[in-house]
Amino acid sequence: MRLRNIPGAKDAILECDWVIDEPERFKGKWDEVFGVRRPLFLEVGMGKGRFLMDMARLHPERNFVGIEMYDSVLLRALQKREEVEDAGEDFSNLVFIRVDARLLPEIFEKDEVDGIYLNFSDPWPKARHAKRRLTSREFLARYEKVLKKDGAVEFKTDNRDLFEFSLEEVKDSNWNLEVCTFDLHHDEKLVEGNVMTEYEEKFSSKGNPICKMIIKQK
Questions:
Q1: Burial 43-76 (b: 16+ CB within 10 A, else e)
Q2: Are 169 and 144 in contact (CB under 8 A)?
């Protein structure tokens, strides 16, 4: 279910230093945002931000950008980050942008991104909405425009139909399937070092198998 709109969410987001306004200004120069050159990783549809904060904590040698299009969801991530930073942590390698992911090629330069994470994306179950799925061939083409040649897209979901759709889209596109599992948490090799999202923890605790694939450009 979508979070209900939070009054004042848009104003709170605009006033937050962790959210980059007019991100297209930094196309080709995202190092300037962080003040240091590091590999750049994106999470598209970051939800409440737990995954990215965990990744930023585990990988201080990387820069991370969380992408979310809904004000109310982004605000939840900001509130969560505020709680963590008030407790003494600092995420100088993590920023957020509030934008529709269809605009990625307008925000990041070709070969500027080292990796992309897609976690429990909206399945858009109606056939007429297939192009909105973040693993559709339309979105895969957008990732090609910003991702380095050896960069990977990592996708996790508990939605079997969406996963099988995604596999077909990869098969018919300019991507190679590097890794594929229909039950991540029972794959001893792949689950090692796996960083869980809030949804993943919730779904897997109910016994739902988690699917994962990693793809790279041909």
A1: bbbbbbbbbbbebbeeeeebbbbbbbeebbbbbb
A2: no
The proportion of the chain whose per-residue pLDDT surpasses 70, expressed as a percent, equals: 96
Structure tokens at 72: 């109310």
Looking at this protein, which amino acid is placed at residue 195?
Answer: V
Span 141-154, pLDDT tens digits: 999 999 999 999 99
Report the SS3 class of residue 127. Answer: helix
Q: Is 70 annotated as a binding residue?
A: no
| Distance, CA of 30 to CA of 169 (rounded, Å) | 30
State the DSSP code for 56.
H
- Give the tens place of pLDDT for each residue, 157-175: 999 999 999 999 999 899 9
Q: Let me know: does 80 contact 48? Beta carbons within 8 Å.
A: yes
Q: Is the pLDDT of residue 2 over 60?
A: no
Tokens representing 52 are 């990215």
Instruction: Answer whether 186's CB lies under 8 Å from 151's CB.
Output: no
Is position 22 annotated in a ligand binding site?
A: no
Exposed / middle / buried, residue 88 (Cβ in 10 Å: 0-12, 13-18, 19+): exposed
| Residues in CB range of 9: below 8 A, 6 or more apart | 71, 72, 74, 75
Catalytic residue numbers read 122
The residues, any chain, with a CB within 8 Å of residue 141's CB and separated by 6 or more, are 173, 174
Q: Which of 165, 139, 171, 172 is nearest to 153 (CA)?
A: 139
The reply to whether 126 sits in an annotated binding site is yes
